[in-house]
Specification:
Layout: H1 11-20, E1 25-33, E2 44-54, E3 60-68, E4 76-80, H2 87-90, E5 95-97, H3 108-119
Antiparallel strand pairs: 1-2, 1-5, 2-3, 3-4
Length: 152
Amino acid sequence: MAEENDGRMSFDEAVRFVQGHPDQAAFSAMPVFGDRSDNEEQRAEGARVFVLEADGAGSYHMRFIAGPFFSNAFAAHETMTVAEIPERARELRFMPTRVEEDWLAEQVQVLIQKLMQASGSAAPEMPDYAAAPLKSGGPDAVPISFIGRRDH
């Protein structure tokens, strides 16, 4: 089966990998889709990222980061102990990689890009989000949260 030879590991294999290589990690990412519509092409709006790491005490933990693409807002950004890892996360397949703490504060698509690059198997069709120029509003731009709001 191709799935078994694609470089990804089962959860148990990933746990053994990170415990045997404490300076390494393993990750899995899955897209998050918005409301389904029959009239338009379905596109991912964000992602859930699961990162397994050794905890330095002989065990491991999982970081769970989820959020929309192109936003610094996160729906989830937490570290789970072994007992807290949900069963559905144990069914995922993981890629060996490494992770740096500051990557976890990046936009979710940049985090995935860096994890892929660190795995040594970055997809050539993946855009270079980390090198993309930042876009912002001009000096007269009004933050959306202030539009129509009255300060008393």
